[in-house]
Amino acid sequence: MNKKDFKEFDAVSLRDYYSSLSRSEKGKFLRYLVGEMGLGYNSMVVKFNDHGSFTKSDEVLINLAIKNEELWRV
Questions:
Q1: End-to-end CA distance of the chain
Q2: How far is CA 10 from the centre of its chain?
Q3: Which position among 16, 27, 33, 39 has the lowest Cβ density within 10 Å, counted as fewest Cβ atoms?
Q4: Could you tell me the CA-to-CA distances from 61 to 23, 55, 64 in Å, in that order?
């Protein structure tokens, strides 16, 4: 799955996207969400592993990060 498969990601799609990343890509993605988007590391790990629910603001910020993949994949 890549970002072209979806125009707007919902919570399930966000989890699918995250699970499709390699281990190193997950680390880069989480570091970007924490450093640039100001989201909490532990809460994002919990939410991506389906032990919590995303808030609407989480979904918006994560969607922005996915749409701008080139910023965190470097």
A1: 19
A2: 11
A3: 27
A4: 21, 10, 5
Q: How far is CA 20 from the centre of its chain?
A: 11
Q: Do 69 and 21 contact (CB within 8 A), yes or no? A: no
Encoding tokens for residue 42?
């532990």
Q: Where are the alpha helices (DSSP H) in 10-55?
A: 11-20, 23-35, 41-48
pLDDT tens-digit series, residues 10-37: 777 889 999 999 999 999 999 999 999 9
Structural tokens at position 34: 């924490």
| Exposure letters 25-34 (e unless 16+ CB within 10 A, then b) | eeeebbebbe
